Amino acid sequence: MKRIAIVGAGIAGLSAGCYAQMNGFETEIFELHNNPGGLCTSWKRKDYTIDGCIHHLPGASSSSKLYTMWKELGAIEDGRILFDSILRRTIDSGGNELNLYTDLVRLKEHLMEISPADREAIDQYLKAAQKFTKFELLAMVSGGGKDKLSMIPHLPGIMKWGPVSLEQFASRFKNSFLQKAFPTAQYDFQGIPMMIHLSFLAGCSIKSMGWPVGGSLAFSKRIAKRYEELGGKIHYRSRVKSIAVKNDRAVGLTLEDRTKANADIVVSAADGYSTIYDMLNGKYKDDFIDEYYANPPDEQEMNAYVSLGVNLPLNDLPHGVTWLMDEKLELSDRCYQKMDLEVLNSKTEMVPGGKSVVRIPFTASYSYWKKLSCDRELYVDKKHEIATKVIERLGVLIPGIKEKIEVVDVSTPITTERFTGNFHGMQVWTPRSKQGRIMSKGLSKTLPGLDDFYMVGQWAQGLIGIATAAVQGKKLIQRLGKR
Asked: Are the C-beta atoms of 7 and 256 separated by less than 8 Å?
């Protein structure tokens, strides 16, 4: 029985561990934190559980090809998935409101009520969304050969909507509010392809995308439980210092406390930079890897949050809200014309009845916060300043909310870096000049010159998303089983 040592109990590491145990391998996972999940996590503040990961879970029902994988991993419980009736709501101070209903018939009626003159663009949008309900883009892209072949009939639609951004499509509307509101349809990221938005809208429409009751940490803990039931062992608070190598072959791990773990195969589901440059001392890499990590973006969307525990039910708000503000809001070193809200109320079981968590993401500069973190008092003061500004402005949108706030929590890229070990507190990024290379080969699934070593997770594949991470773990074990 071959032994596999896995670094990191995030979703990719847990998935690899589960499928390895199912296929006759003996495995152990070494996790630096005291909980599983990595970035797929939540944390408690008084009565409130603040969720740090899942927005929409692909494979949430049996209508999805990914559902079987989640059931094998013990990740989801039937009847305990929430399906949103509104993907996102965008509002302005003039009372205009765009609701992206997941019922496509209702969505078309709503758009026509807003702007009858935009029938042509509305018809284009809804016809495209309807076509995207016929296939699962993520399952096809991340699946095996048969899944990729199944994409062929749908390639015209994929190729048509891949190059078109939300901003570009919004310009087809005649209505000025739709022109401003539509680009916020998908997390309010700039330049999001219509293809991505249509995949999410279609997935929510047919209920293949949902939200697991209990949140991200509970989701991760269910997979960890399944792994242990299969005979695997997780070592928490066990930071890996180095990967042992003999004759250019990975043979085990050395922990920070000098404990050694021998293995026939080593799999890193940990941060890419830490794995390559710290655990392996930068000995196994190429120019592409060096160039990638030498040029990280300083900023990344949704890499910082103000989270509020509110003694209000907020049942009239959907999970995702974007507010187009009249006045700019200055936070740290940036100005914002929009405010995004993620709302979790008691139906999520993250808060007691009658209460809610509201999370406001913002784009943060790593270098800005890294410099601040050198002075603890200054760092804390700046977080307090940002929270105060957000709360004051939020009071315009939700009158009376300030007096109902019971918990304030601010996370920055430094928070993520400290708790997960992620390089610069970031998710993987895709440099525009290397998109084709990463899409075809991944970022660093293996390392040049090193045998019996593999990577899984976002830093291996070069793509974000917990479903993508879990699929990678499964595919790696399938590959190892064929050796």
From this structure: no
